[in-house]
Amino acid sequence: QVQLVESGGGLVQAGGSLRLSCAASGSRFIAAMGWYRQAPGNQRDLVAAITRGGDTNYADSVKGRFTISTDNTKNTVYLQMNSLKPEDTAVYYCNLRLNAGYTYWGQGTQVTVSS
To answer: What average pLDDT score do residues 74-85 get?
Structure first.
C-alpha cells in the first residue's frame, strides 16, 4: 500500500520561505514525484515535478522561486519555496507516479501567505 506523508506547510508572510516534504512508503519503481496546488474555486495545477533521473519541470509562476529536489534513498521529495507571494496560497498536494503509470496523492498541506 503506497502512502505519502506531507509536512512543512503553514503561515508565512509575503517574501518568506517554506519547505515542504513528502515521504513515500510502500512504493517501488517510482517514475516521478511532484507537487500540485489547489486554491479555493480553482483546479489542481502542477507546481513542480521531478523524475527519478532528476529532470525537473516547473510552473511558470514559480520558476526562479521554488526548487524541487529528492532524496531517492528515502523516497522523499522536497519543495523549497522562496519569495512567497499571497497568490501562492493554496493546499499543496504531493504526487507520486510509478513506472507502471499508477499515481498516488498525499492528503494535502495548507500554505498560507499573508500580505
So the answer is: 96
Rounded Cα gap, residues 74 and 81, in angstroms: 21
Q: How many CA atoms lie within 13 A of 46 on its CB side?
A: 14
* CB neighbour list of residue 89: distance below 8 Å, 6 or more residues apart: 39, 111, 112, 113
In sign, the C-alpha dihedral spanning 97, 71, 9, 57 is: negative
Q: By CB neighbour count within 10 A (0-12 exposed, 13-18 middle, 19+ buried), where does 37 fall?
A: buried
Backbone phi and psi for residue 60, each to the nearest 5 degrees, phi listed first: -60, -35
| 3 state SS for 59-105 | CHHHCCCEEEEEECCCCEEEEEECCCCHHHCEEEEEEEEECCCCEEE
Query: Quick one: pLDDT band at residue 12, thresholds 50, 70, 90?
Result: very high
